[in-house]
Amino acid sequence: MNRKELAELVDEQRIPLAVYVTGKVLDQPWVVAAGMADAAAGRPMSVDTPLRVASNTKTFVAATVLRLWERGLVDLDGPIAPLVTPLFNELLAAAGYHTDKITVRHLLDHSGGLVDHTDDPEFFATVVREPQHFWTREEQVHLGAKFSAPLSDPGTRYSYSDTGYILLGDIVERISGTTLAATVRREMAFDRLGLATTWWEISEPEPAQVEPRARQFFGDVDATEINASMDLYGGGGLVMSARDLATFFAALFEGRVFDSPDTLREMLSMGTHEGADSYRLGIAASNVDGSECYSHLGFWGTAAYYSPTSGIAIAGFATSREARGKLVSVIEQTLAATLPVSA
Q1: Could you give the angle at the alpha carbon of 186 between the alpha carbons of 180 and 192, nearest 5°?
Q2: Confidence at residue 176, expressed as pLDDT on a 0 to 100 scale
C-alpha cells in the first residue's frame, strides 16, 4: 500500500476521518484526512485537528509509570495500599477490595478485579443530564466502589477498569509531587518529540495557534462540550492530533521514550491471568494478518497501532463513537498491506 491507496480507502468510508502513518521505515509520513471536523463551522478534518482521545491516554499513563519504575521510584509488583490516597484505600476497603494484594501491575494490565465506574448507569445518566457537572477523582472512585464488589481476586482475570487508571493517576502524582499532566508531559518528552498539538484538558492551557477541536459525537449526542472532568484523571484526559498520537507510538517503539529497551519489554510482557494475551501494561496486543501488533482505542472514535514487523505506527480519528469500527478496519487493512511478503 502507498499513501494514494490509503487516501482512496479513507474516501470510501464516506465519514470524517484523519489518518497519520509514520515510522523509521518510511521516507516521509502518509497524511490523509477526509470530511469535516466541524460541519457547522465549515472546518475540514486534518491530521493536526485535535480531539479528546479518551482511553488512548492510558498508554501514556502506563508508560509514565514504567519510566518511574526504570528509575527505581515504584515497584510494579508492590501493593497499592501505601501508594494511593488514604481516602481511596478506605473507599475500596469498604467495598471489599484488598489493596494490600492489588499491585501496580494489576492496575496497569486491568487484572486487579476492580470495577469500572463508567459501567454504573448512574455515571452516564449524570453526564447526559448534567453535562457541565465537574467530576472529582474521589467522586468517581466512590461511584465505582459503591457500584460493585470486586469482580475477581487480584491477578486472576482481565477486566477493563477506568477506575484502576484513576488510581494510577493518583499514584503518579503522589510519587512525583506534581500534577499527572505535568509528570506525563515531562516523562513522555512531549516537547522533545514535538507534540505541539497535545495537552491535558483543564490541567494545561491549550497550545497557542492549535486548530480548534473537532466535534465529537456519541449517537445523536454532541459530546464536544461535555465537561472534561468526566474522563480526566488517568483513564483519559489528553487532547491531541492524529499526527501527535502516531508520532508518540513510533517514538515509544523505536526507543525514544524509555532509557532502556528492557522497559519496553516489561511494558509488553504478558501476565499469567485469564485474558492476559489481549492486554499488556497499558497497551493491547492483537494479531493482524498473522503478525502481532500493539494498539489502544479511545472511546469517542480514536485508535493507535504499531506493527513491529513492518515498523509502522498509525493513528487515526473518527468524529463519532459509531465510526470507530470503520477506522479500525482502515488501520488494520493498511497494516496488513504494508507487512513484508514473508511475514
Answers
A1: 145
A2: 98
Dist. CA 108–CA 98, nearest whole Å: 17
Cβ atoms 80, 284 nearer than 8 A: no
Q: Which of 286, 278, 328 is nearest to 303 (CA)?
A: 328
What span, in angstroms and rounded, lies between the C-alpha atoms of 75 and 292?
28
Residue 287, C-alpha cell as written in the block: 494479531
pLDDT of residue 342: 57
CATH number for the segment(s) 3-338: 3.40.710.10
Specify the pLDDT at position 343. 45
**Cα distance between residue 40 and residue 48, in whole Å:** 19
pTM above 0.85, yes or no: yes
Tell me what the mean pLDDT of segment 89-106 comes to: 97
Domain boundaries, the chain: 3-338
Place of cell 490541567: 203
Q: Which three cell numbers stand for residue 185?
A: 508531559
Q: Helix crossing, 3-13 with 324-338: angle to 10°?
A: 160
Residues 173/267/281/311 CA torsion (nearest 10 deg): 120
| Residue 233 near residue 169, CB atoms below 8 Å | yes
d(CA 43, CA 266): 42
Average pLDDT over residues 177-203: 98
